[in-house]
Amino acid sequence: MVLDSLKTSFGKQDLNGYARIYEDAETLKATEPNYLVERSGAPESEGSEEA
């Protein structure tokens, strides 16, 4: 999931946003710019979990 934009309204406690949800990390990395992939905290790969 990538959060693209978040906007608030003055005087209200509401937040409107836009997000894109992908099936897997490979599709996310192929579609989105690198800075959005890093900001979203996408996993590097399935096998590289830290101990």
Question: Can you offer a commentary on this structure?
Answer:
The protein contains 2 helices and 2 strands; from the N terminus they run ββαα. A hairpin with a 6-residue loop joins β1 and β2 (15-20). It has one domain (2-40). The chain has helices at residues 25-31, 34-40, and strands spanning 2-8, 15-20. It is α+β, with helices and mostly antiparallel strands and 51 residues long. A two-stranded antiparallel sheet has the order 1-2. The longest helix is centred in the middle third of the chain and has 7 residues, at 25-31. The protein starts with a strand and ends in an 11-residue tail after the last helix. Helices cover 27% and strands 25% of the residues.
Which helices and strands appear, and what pairs or packs with what?
Layout: E1 2-8, E2 15-20, H1 25-31, H2 34-40
Antiparallel strand pairs: 1-2
Summarize the structure.
By secondary structure, the chain is of the alpha+beta class. The protein has one domain (2-40).
